[in-house]
Amino acid sequence: MRTRRLAEETVSDGTYLEIERFYSRHLQLLDAGEAEAWAETFTEDGTFAVPTLPEPTRGRAALIAAVRRTRAELAEKGEKHRHWHGMITVDDRPDGALDVVCYALVFASPEGGPSRLHRVCVCRDVLVREDGALRVRDRFVTRDDLA
Questions:
Q1: Fewest CB within a 10 Å sphere: which of 7, 11, 109, 125?
Q2: Per residue in 1-57, pLDDT tens?
Q3: Which helix or strand (DSSP H or E) is residue 50 part of?
Q4: Which residues sit opposite 121 in a β-bridge?
Q5: 8-state DSSP, 9
Q6: Sign of CA dihedral 65, 62, 52, 84
Q7: What are phi and psi of 68, to 5 degrees?
């Protein structure tokens, strides 16, 4: 098992707040099923790697398709998911990008039933600026229940 030493954060409070706001919008777009708008928060060639897929999802078109597919599956089950990111740490990279690590919780709410904690994850993102906006270049998610 690899451990990561938590470095002193080197970003300003303003940048940290900007990142918090980015994730608020980013995750609300995802939970609302706004596939195109959510995919725009990634770079054109952005990647999304999760342990349940054999390879990362690459590029906005593939990200849009994945959100649409998941949205349809959840609708069929009569379930909604809500994502929460917290405990965010941010480190500057020499290339100007930002390394962001946070806890990600996914709550599932079936129609007519009680909500439950569905997944507990760690999300590692590389954020970059494009035209002044933050975008995810790379996302790597691990789940606590999987090796």
A1: 7
A2: 344 455 566 789 999 999 999 999 999 999 999 999 999 999 999 999 999 999 999
A3: none
A4: 104, 143
A5: P
A6: negative
A7: -60, -40
Q: How far is CA 55 from the centre of its chain?
A: 16
Task: Tell me the C-alpha distance between 87 and 85, whole Å.
Answer: 7
pLDDT at residue 83 greater than cutoff 90: yes
Tell me the pLDDT tens digit for each residue of 95-109.
999 999 999 999 999
Q: Give the list of residues 6+ apart from residue 56 with CB closer than 8 angstroms, or none.
A: 47, 48, 49
**Number of residues that make up the chain:** 147
pTM of the model: 0.91
Query: Which one-letter amino acid corresponds to residue 38?
Result: W
Q: Give the DSSP H/E element, type plus range, for residue 19.
A: helix 13-31
Query: 78 in the Ramachandran plot: left (φ > 0), alpha (ψ -120 to 50) or beta?
Result: left
Contact predicate 73/98, CB 8 Å: no
Chain position carrying tokens 């098992």? 1
Between CA 146 and CA 49 the distance in angstroms is 14
